[in-house]
Structure formats: C-alpha cells, structure tokens
Design goal:
With 156 residues, the protein is of the alpha+beta class. Helices cover 54% and strands 18% of the residues. The chain has a 3-stranded antiparallel beta sheet, with no helix packed on it. The chain has a two-stranded parallel ribbon with strand order 1-8. Strands 5-6 form a two-stranded antiparallel ribbon. A hairpin with a 5-residue loop joins β3 and β4. α1 runs antiparallel to α2 and α2 runs antiparallel to α3.
C-alpha cells in the first residue's frame, strides 16, 4: 500500500466511524447498541493499524530505521487479513477436533456412543438484515469501500 492509499483508507474509516457513532444514538435496544459499539471498536482498531503503517512508511522514506521496511511488509500483510467480528468468532482445530468461541476455552467436538464416533462442530449463522437494523447498509458500505470484511455471525 502506498501513503496515498493509506491516507484515503484512513479517511474512509474515520468517516464510517462517525456515521456509526451518529447511528448508535438511534439504537433502541441493548443488542443494537452492543453491535454499534463492537463496530466502532473494530473501526478504531483498523484506524490504529493504518496509523502504524503510515508511521512505518515515513521511517522507510527517511531511511532512519533499517528494520522499518520489514515491519511495514509484515503490517501490510496482517492488515490484508483484517476482519471486524461483531458477534462470535469461531476457531476450529481440525487436527484435535476442538473449537472455541471468541477466544475462550477449547471445547472437544468428538462424541461417542453405541453408533460410533461423531465430530460435530458449531456453525456460524449470519444475522439477518432485520437483526442488524440500520447497521446492515453501513456494514455493506464499509466492506465495499474499504475491502475490510465485517462479520455479523452467531455461533449455534
């Protein structure tokens, strides 16, 4: 990413953050306000990453730090996989047949009975546009404008 691209991305993210903050005041339920708060936290994290990348770019351009170029490459790669999770994040370890939700404790997905052994992981179900309310269109715009996926899923 170039400095111009990062600056444009920063501007878009900051604008979306303002929209979400303003939209939060219209939230009529605790669930809606929680979704807004989680989206604001995700946007703040993305903005912080962009700040770091822009600082590393300045250090590379001035030549004051020989390691900055490698750090910038790493941060750029990490940012390329950046995702905002509004509800549940499900991690699955296929080798051990375990899963965990939102970084919690690992849970064994193996069950055994007279019929044999079964592996049953949880599934992620997307929130409906009705559940998201006014955030549905904002989330879609964020993903389209910034290429940062926003996942609003529930583990069941």
């Amino acid at each position: 990413m170039t400095s111009d691209h990062n600056l444009m991305l920063y501007t878009k993210l900051a604008g979306f953050r303002l929209v979400v903050v303003a939209n939060r005041f219209g939230g009529d339920t605790d669930f809606s306000r929680e979704l807004h708060d989680r989206l604001i936290e995700g946007l703040d994290a993305a903005i912080a990453r962009i700040h770091l990348m822009m600082a590393l770019e300045r250090r590379v351009q001035t030549g004051e730090d020989e390691v900055a170029e490698y750090q910038l490459q790493g941060e750029t790669e990490i940012f390329g996989r950046f995702t905002i999770n509004l509800l549940d994040d499900l991690e699955i370890d296929d080798d051990t047949h375990e899963y965990r939700i939102n970084g919690g404790n690992w849970i064994n997905a193996l069950t055994a009975d007279d019929g044999g052994v079964e592996v049953k992981f949880l599934a992620l179900v997307r929130l409906t546009d009705d559940e998201l309310g006014t955030l549905a269109s904002i989330i879609q715009d964020i993903t389209l404008e910034t290429d940062i996926p926003v996942h609003a899923v529930r583990a069941i």
